[in-house]
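User: Vitamin B12-dependent ribonucleotide reductase. Structure?
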Amino acid sequence: MTETVSAAARSDEQPRPGLSLERVFSTPGAHPYDEVTWERRDVVQTNWKTGETVFEQRGVEYPDFWSVNASTIVTTKYFRGAVGTDARESSLRQLIDRIVTTYTRAGLEHGYFATPGDAEVFEHELTWLLLHQYFSFNSPVWFNVGTPSPQQVSACFILSVDDSMDSILNWYKEEGFIFKGGSGAGLNLSRIRSSKELLSSGGTASGPVSFMRGADASAGTIKSGGATRRAAKMVVLDVDHPDIEEFVQTKAREEDKIRALRDAGFDMDLGGADITSVQYQNANNSVRVSDEFMRAVEDGTDFALRARKTGEEIERVDARDLFRKISQAAWECADPGLQYDDTINDWHTNPETGRITASNPCSEYMSLDNSSCNLASLNLLKFLKDDDTFDAPLFAKAVEFIITAMDISICFADFPTEAIGVTTRDYRQLGIGYANLGALLMAMGLGYDSDGGRAMAATITSLMTGTSYKRSAELASIVGPYAGYARNATAHQRVMRKHQAANDTVRTLHGTDRAVHELATQAWADVVSLGAEHGFRNAQASVLAPTGTIGFMMDCDTTGIEPDFSLVKFKKLVGGGSMQIVNQTIPRALTRLGYQPEQVEAIVAYIAEHGHVIDAPGLKTEHYEVFDTAMGARALKPMGHVRMMAACQPFLSGAISKTVNLPETATVEEIEDVYLQSWKLGLKATAVYRDNCKVGQPLADGGGKAKKDAADAADAAASAAAPTVVEKVVYAPVRKRLPKSRASRTTSFTVGGAEGYMTSGAHDDGELGEVFLKLGKQGSTLAGVMDAFSIAVSIGLQYGVPLETYVSKFTNLRFEPAGLTDDPDVRMAQSIMDYIFRRLALDYLPFESRQALSLFSADERQRYLETGSYELPAVETGAASELIEAAATSAPAPAKEVPVEAEDAAVVETKDTEGSNTREVPATPTTGRAHTSAELLEQLTGTAVDSPLCMTCGTKMRPAGSCYVCEGCGSTSGCS
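Assistant: Predicted structure:
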């Protein structure tokens, strides 16, 4: 159990001189608002599928350099007051003032500033940083600070539950209040007795998994009650708990249930009407593993499961077998993740108070039970100078102001429970972090999965946390250390030395990261010396959060520690609509890599058309890695994500919110390797997601197959009910030969660079009867194999094997060559066979059969996005004049000129070495087929991006850490 420090222990410090602050960002004698140009905008948000207006506020005021997307999200999410009333905020000035003046006033009241002049400097600096999108607080600050509502500033909560019914029911209640406010919570259930242990009354305990059902139902109910985002929760169970196997299997078994119900015709898609009938869907599950267990996995030895009350051994299991079951379950449904207990607690600054047993829902905040953490994230790309080097001194100054503000917030903050309030005030946990790392590395010409990229990320993270703890020690000299510091001083100083030692092991590779590392080294030296003298104001300082909504608020290209999602994105236009543009980071990266303006122009144009850099004209293959993305043709390997997290983890107080994405073809062994290597590399937590491992798939008409299967089952049942006649009938296939002269078509194709030809012949009724494939040189082994395959398929077709059967068996078959094709209907193929049978299905199968197989042409997919249906609208026959009118109204409208403001022109600017504009390259305009970057990636690659639809505006969401965030309205799936 976590112990807290009494209030009396916090009041023995004498007042000391406050901070003396110097202006760094703002200008003396001028308010930050007076240095920017303001403009009025109309924010009108509609559901692009239904056309319904979901939000409207006109005449809102923003700086002219804020994007339409950022202003839309801030207006809809963070402006307070009833829409349409005078009480409603209508300007970014009002929003920032509401936050900053509250912080400044609290800082003055609690003695943080030496003089009122220093308080004014603090106010102007904080205002400037927020106004210019250099950083953002987490969402609860924007929701609550400066309003009549409780001043809740924290987004992350950790609860605790004991082995008693009172504690379990209190868990339900506390979690409910946190969900009601739109935040998330995590807890460890390992204190609850297992179902293999006895109660004091003599009966058998229910076990923690049974109590998870009630909590899951509660979360699902509150989610549907209309909170700002869905209930987000984390449930953790120790690996030595006797019910660990039942816990591991909970969500995997439910996924089997979802598949069965789907096949029976129920709506089990994301947000479907029947999905609520399954359990455990509102929580992320994690197993807390020890070094002892992981070593047993390596050695192949047994591992003991122990009673919760006495610690006695209940049974022994094969560690490797249990590890396999964990990985198998994660392969099937993405749960559970792993949390590495000994690593977490080895970096714990407060072990004398209690162990760290759990995390928040996204696994970045790890601290004491019944505690909370408020977050803030910096926009790294803002600190990239014109010469493409990172401005480390300016970054450090920003961190000092931000961490000061974050600590001040605890002085006036409200908390959902008294226990959480006491622990947070006693230990003052903070979570400073950053966003836009992926964009920063690309702009600097560094690959995300490269030694240079990892060194840069590690040094920036080290500088951020070192500067934060340095300022924490300075604050301790002014307003005193955190109340729990005295009893944990030795442990806290030990962890600071561990951070310092980790910083010393970083090996820099170039001048930019060397300069950052030198500043970080000095910061950690100051941390150790100042901390030994004054102590620390905060028990923890840093985490890396998903930065979903606030990432859009800062106009970040990438969230948290994530790489770039795709190379082509959408930009919203003033007055509505959007256009497709190549990321502005790409021209800067190409220039950094030494390409000339005309080369940059050609490469950018290629990316605009293809969505990737493979075979881009003039681009060196050794530079491909700079443009690797989370998804697409050059998707990063799973271990690339793990290695980046491992590079940054030693410089964080908490952990990292990130999911390691694996392709659908990944094996259980690969997931085992990710989990094992994450432990060896020193990560505190790891979560995985295998593509398409869950039933709920966005923009997929799964109902077609389900309904067809249900109809087949009904026919079978009807046949079974009919009277039977005992009769032996022998069926023999009859070959249906093709006519001597038949219609055929020849298709040339390219798959992953391999060229081939397909000739298909049909019967007089249009039914496919033969296929001939040419691939490779005549006489080669490949050509012979393709000839034999063609004959086998052709004979099968003529003997009555349905084409649907071949299509279902050979589509999604994966082997090389694979990749992009030159077919607009099948943009991406996993193999030659995958392409051939997708093409045959589109050429010869009726729409109903293809719908059941989820195979659609490009025109049909576009029609679905525009109308919500793949099928052509029915046109009734009538007079010739009516038919002509119907044809005219369905024809494409003639293009018309639309004035576009200069700031919204669909151009990509390139710069010469002197920085002057030289040419403008038109970017590919939006086609109407996609509305977000997630959908654009689907359009470019032909593969589904496994993200849910936003419940607010209907737009496809995109991954952000271990959550999802909507590009249209900023809603998140559970994390701020």
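Confidence is low (pLDDT under 50) at residues 6-13, 224-229, 697-730, 875-927. The longest strand covers residues 53-63.
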